[in-house]
Design goal:
single chain, alpha+beta, Maf protein
Length: about 90
Amino acid sequence: MIDTYGVVSSQVAEQMVKGACRLFHSDYALASTGYAEPWEGHEVEIWVAWGSEHDTHSLCLHEDFGRLKNVELATQCVLDEFAKYLMELR
């Protein structure tokens, strides 16, 4: 998968969610991958993913507010999206 899509991709982030669910026998998982600051020709690109082994979702953040703020925003984003996801399951 990494050879096809690269480490920083929705496919890898979603596969991380599926793998964490299987590995830890959990119903749900959250994951992230990406560049939290520009690096060697790459712009900020943070993929966050959430869901279950059979139902994953992801989105990408591109805004650059500095590394620490980018990490904080990505963390808050995946938590917010996961909360919405859980509410929709009700």
